[in-house]
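Continuing the batch. This is chain 6 of the set; chains 1 through 5 are on the previous pages. Same settings as before, nothing changed between runs. Recording input and output for traceability.
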Amino acid sequence: MKIAILGSTGSIGTQTIQVVRELNSRKETDCNPHIQIIALAAGSNVDALAKQAVEFDVKILSVKFFIQQLLFIKFNYIIVSL
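Output for chain 6:
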C-alpha cells in the first residue's frame, strides 16, 4: 500500500508515521500489507522532514518556502509546490 502524508511533521502527521512504523514491524499479510510512504509534505520543519525522508526513503517532498525547496533539490529530491 502506498500513501502520502500531508503535514508529516505536525502532531497528526507524526502519529501517522508512528502507526506506519508499528504496522510495518509486523509480519506482512493480506490483512496487514507493507505500507510505503511515497510523499511527504511539511510547512517549515525541514529537519524533521529530512529525517522522515531518509528513514522511509521518500523522494517526493513538499515544503512551504522556496529557499527550503532549494536545499532538498540539491540532494536530488523531487519537490512539489502546493
